[in-house]
Amino acid sequence: MSDALAVHRHGAGGFELPLPVGWEWRENVKGCALLAIEPERDDGHVRANVVVTVERLPDGESVEEWFRRSLAALAESFRRHRLLDLEDREVGGRPARRALSHYVDSVHGGVCLEQWLVPAGELGMVVSCTTAALEYDDLFELMHAVADGLRVR
Predict the structure, then answer these.
(1) Contact (CB, 8 A) for 129 and 143
(2) Phi and psi (nearest 5°) for 45?
(3) Rounded Cα–Cα distance for residues 1 and 22 (Å)
(4) For 78-133, how does the pLDDT look when each residue is reduced to its tens digit (9 = 90+)?
(5) Contact at 8 Å (CB) between 52 and 9?
(6) SS3 category, 40
């Protein structure tokens, strides 16, 4: 897998972020602004991927409420979900929250999901990086470079 990154500018012009060279990507797929996935391998592991979602924040909802609501939705969405780490960060000059979770996929076993929740005016942007649990350490720097490279226009 290549660690080389190239900037991807979303077609709607709202954001850009670096993606690994050679990964497949699609925009505006099933509620996702961007989906990028590593090339297929023969080993049966979950394919590492990056998903960017964008939602309009409800009127009157604080950023803290959005953080809590988004993280609560994870527990409802994934089997045996565990929140492992949570920290305040900065992404592209904006305050953000990073959350590291683990869940169990019935086919692939343990999966790590690392998310960066970035408020941008009336929008909430989430960069989600998913890896097989056993590959998390190997992909840590690459996935952090992707998320840290998010720029909202």
Answers:
(1) yes
(2) -75, 160
(3) 8
(4) 878 899 999 999 999 999 999 999 999 888 889 999 999 999 999 999 999 999 99
(5) no
(6) coil
